[in-house]
Amino acid sequence: MSVITLAPSALYQQVAEQLRLRIFQHVLEPGTWIDELKIAEELGISRTPLREALKVLAAEGLVTMKVRRGAYVTEVSTKDVHDVYHLLALLESDAAAVVASSATEAELAELQALHEELVRHKDDAQQFFAVNERFHMRLLALANNRWSDQVVADLRKVMKLNRHKSLFRQGRIDESLHEHALIVQALQSREPERARQAMQQHFANGLAAAVV
Question: Which residues form the HTH gntR-type domain (predicted)?
Fold first, then answer.
């Protein structure tokens, strides 16, 4: 078995990223017990940085620590999905309204370019999801509220535990593209309320697809 070489600086953060990728790629499925001895051996590290990494992932909601049983990949319930979409809809619709009011023409052009990239990847769900996340996170960055940015980043990590069901459902990518087009149109026409409502509808439709 090959050992992954990790730099000594911030070792636990690098271990956290390794585990985060395994969780997002569903190498470690929701509900899976995390075998600390096995993973420490695979990474060629002691269990100390691994345990620190697990604390980071627990704070992000990706890992659940159970007394005397160890760490498990978090299982997402239907209520969790509803709660996450509800919060994302609130935060991102507010960001959309701010961006419609205050973004520069160059910044709006960035969002338009990301939307066009989404269109180009409509037949590749994995790439579509990656660009979709870039669009949403860039819109948040333009709204310039770092507290909202951090909350949304953590919520989106939890969303990934749900296997992107909302985008993989047949027809959902085309629907999502149409919704993004409406959001971009509202931003470019400088209509904050219309942008807010378009984003809220986007999340409402995404939730409906995610819990089917």
Answer: 9-76
Q: Are 33 and 70 in contact (CB under 8 A)?
A: yes
Cα dihedral 162, 149, 102, 107 in deg (nearest 10): -70
Predicted confidence (pLDDT) per residue in 61-99, tens digit: 899 999 889 999 998 888 988 999 999 999 999 999 999
C-alpha closest to that of 143 among 195, 208, 77: 195
CATH number of 78-210: 1.20.120.530
Long-range contacts of 59-63, Cβ-Cβ distance < 8 Å, separation of 24 or more: 60/20, 60/154, 60/157, 60/158, 61/154, 61/157, 61/158, 62/20, 62/23, 62/157, 62/158, 62/161, 63/19, 63/23, 63/34
Give the three-state DSSP class for 56.
Answer: helix
Contact 209, 166 (CB under 8 A): yes
The better pLDDT of the pair 208, 200 is held by: 200
Domain ranges of the chain: 11-73, 78-210
What is the rounded distance in angstroms from the CA atom of residue 159 to the CA atom of residue 85? Answer: 8
What would the two tokens of residue 193 be?
Answer: 């309320």
Q: What is the CATH number of domain 11-73?
A: 1.10.10.10
Alpha-carbon distances of 185 from 19, 71, 134, 189, 212, rounded to whole Å? 39, 45, 18, 6, 29
